[in-house]
Write a structure and sequence with these properties.
By secondary structure, the chain is an alpha/beta fold. It contains 8 helices and 11 strands. The protein has one domain: Aldolase class I (TIM Barrel). Helix 6 packs across helix 7. It binds iron/sulfur cluster. The site of iron/sulfur cluster has 11 residues, from loops.
């Protein structure tokens, strides 16, 4: 079994509460969504084929990493490959996902240590709302160390903020607010970010604001 993988590299985690840890990143090709703000190159036209054994060797060579980050695109689309690879992987597994493919998650949740799951806001993605999918996803993911990451911009609504806070409260998980970046610059003002954080804290206590730190560090 082989997977279409865009790139494998070790670098510093730049998002969420595990920011600063060294990880082995595996960027899978393909995604089931098409967010307006997406700046990730996960096109299969630029893919390399990796076997499970080939990737296991790379994991063995990077034992100084905190974990192996499965990212994308959407790594859960490569479910057949993951079912072969994950049971043999010695590094702790950190899954970065858009938080929608809950049936696929259920098939591999036993092998995952950390789940960084997105909350997708229609105001930012330009897509339909996905609260139902996120709820089903979080129910399964909350067996493990789980946090939610939510990209927002100036268009975020009060209703979206309340729904996100309520969802994270339901599963007692941290909500990370991540301001959208445009051309490597914050798309919102400091005052706006602070106001959104303060507003969220009215509805739920476990909320943090963390921008994409790797863009400031100028690492991949
Ligand atoms: S879910 Fe992530 S990878 Fe997929 S389109 Fe949205 S931002 Fe891009």
């Amino acid at each position: 079994m082989e997977a279409d993988i865009r790139e494998v590299f070790s670098s510093i985690q730049g998002e969420g509460p595990y920011v600063g840890y060294k990880q082995l990143f595996v960027r899978f090709c393909g995604c089931n969504l098409k967010c307006k703000y997406c700046d990730t190159d996960f096109d299969t036209a630029h893919a390399s084929k990796y076997s499970a054994s080939g990737l296991l060797k790379l994991a063995e060579m990077n034992q100084d990493c905190h974990s192996i980050s499965l990212t994308g695109g959407e790594p859960l689309l490569s479910i057949k490959f993951l079912k072969e690879f994950l049971p043999k992987c010695k590094l702790p597994v950190y899954l970065e996902t858009n938080g929608t493919l809950y049936k696929n998650l259920a098939e591999i949740i036993d092998y995952i240590s950390y789940v960084s799951a997105d909350i997708k806001l229609p105001s930012c993605t330009g897509l339909r709302q996905m609260w139902d999918l996120h709820d089903k996803f979080f129910k399964i993911a909350s067996q493990k160390i789980l946090f939610a990451k939510m990209v927002f911009n100036n268009s975020i609504t009060e209703d979206e903020l309340i729904k996100a806070c309520n969802l994270c409260k339901k599963y007692s998980i941290e909500l990370v607010l991540q301001p959208e970046m445009v051309d490597n610059k914050l798309s919102v003002s400091s005052e706006f970010m602070e106001a959104i954080l303060n507003n969220a804290l009215k509805y739920y206590h476990n909320v943090r604001l963390i921008p994409q730190v790797h863009k400031f560090l100028n690492v991949q």
